[in-house]
Amino acid sequence: MFRKIVSNLTFSPALVGQLGFYAKRLRKEETTRRAGLIFTALALVVQSFAVFTPPESANAANGNNIIYGGFKSKDDLLSIYDRNKDSASHKDLQQIYSYFGITRQDIANSSWTTFNSRDQNNNIQSVGRSTYSFQRTPVKISGTETTVYSSQLSKFDSTSWTTTHGSMYTAVVGKRAIDGKWFAIMSGCGNPAYVSMPPAPPEPTAVCSALAITPITRTKFTFKASSSIKNGANVSGYTYVVKDSTGATTYTKTQSTSEVTNSFTYEFNKDGQYTVEVIVLTSVGQKKSSECNKALSVSPEPRCTLNPDLTESNPDCKPCENDKTIWHKDQNCTSEFTLTKSVKNISQLVSDANNTTASPGDRLEYHLRVKNTGKTTGSYKIEDNLADVLEYADLVDAGGGTLLKKTDNVAVEKVNTISWPSVDIKPNETIDKIISIQVKSTTPATPKGLGNPESYDCRMVNDFAGNHTNISLQCPTAKVVEQVVSELPHTGTSENLLFAGAVITIVTYFYARSRQVKKEVRLIRRDLNSGTI
Fold first, then answer.
1. Domain carrying residue 521
2. Report field, pTM of the whole predicted structure over 0.70
3. Of the candidates 402, 424, 422, which has an alpha carbon nearest to the alpha carbon of residue 414?
4. What is the pLDDT of residues 94-114, one digit of tens each?
5. How many domains is the chain partitioned into structurally?
6. Which residues on neighbouring strands pair with residue 345, listed in sequence order?
7. What are 237-262's pLDDT values in tens digits?
8. Which of 327, 397, 489, 495 would you call most buried, defined as having the most Cβ atoms within 10 angstroms of its Cβ?
């Protein structure tokens, strides 16, 4: 249209009015395109925050974390490794990584990248400090009191997307120097991941090599044992087992030591023929030998009928509390505890609310029962972890127990645990504790945690010594969306910058074209007014 007006302007000056109308339209178009350019630039600024500052989980730290709260970079991980201590005061990090064959140098040689839970032919195993509703394998870490739990990483994939495509994790990824096998340490929790355990070191050996028995008095003897160790084995103690002529064990004593020799003095309370056997406790197990099994003799003296090692007048010669035929310290005279748990929905009048759905504001009661099925009174300390329950409910009545909080200076995994003081329970006696909670009036829409996918999952899961209860909740809309769409497509910085460049180039082109046409109209009108056209 513009070309047609300009080409006919010389022959029909009346077209100048149409040219003016066209110029006004161009000014409006220029204004619209300038606004488009400004809003596009603002959108790209907002997008840059999502690209360069990705969001983090609102519940990233969890008691399942090997490193509480995770780490931000490889250098941050190395710093925590060198301290061997995280923000929750765990001091077993080096031992855990070493158990799975990961050294500091392996971490230093690793790369900061991402991996999918279904990589390595879906053979990736992950390690954490806690066990949840699905089966995980306990692993005792040598040299510590720590037990961690291992399971297939893809078991944490709980949404329709992740169960098909797997979950992406940011981590340091590398290969172990000991065997060249793949490993990773996940940044959100510090949990190691692996495809196979490291090879076993050369097998150490140990043996009990000698036992010398030296009499001191008629009833008192000194036993001196010696051991031999090879290939890195070590000694942790010696157990002295005294047996009577029938072969029954009358006395056992364990002495902790790392020395290759050890002595022990023992006074017999009953006469007769005895054998003394020494068992060496080593890093490769308990070791016996014929050289550490010797006989000795003690002259007769009246003994307790329930325990021949004691005299009849000994105050310790008494029967078991609930079985008068055995000694009160016999290995069969013990207390045994049976634990049960149930949950009631008081609001809905449901006596067995396990595997049911609770409504906002419902009142629930958890019943904890401990029964002594043994033969003697025993002491038991009742504890129940309500961490998962209290995500969606408030504690109304602790039943005389104490709810442990972060301010109580307790281990992270003990937070939100209710505990009662140790109590003596007689045989066949049952102790019953009742905990009352009330479901929150509004179900929180807090997203699932990065460190623990079972956190904020619209379920209240509770486990009491293997007695598992599960109360479901109606998820709010935001949680339903979270379950359907767990994460956005994985596009990197390059893709975002390329798209942004293409958009701003197109917008700038149309804006420049508008300005050029506007200028051409101005020049034509000037030439028309000056009589050139």
1. 2-52+493-530
2. no
3. 402
4. 999 999 999 999 999 999 999
5. 4
6. 350, 364
7. 999 999 999 999 999 999 999 999 99
8. 327
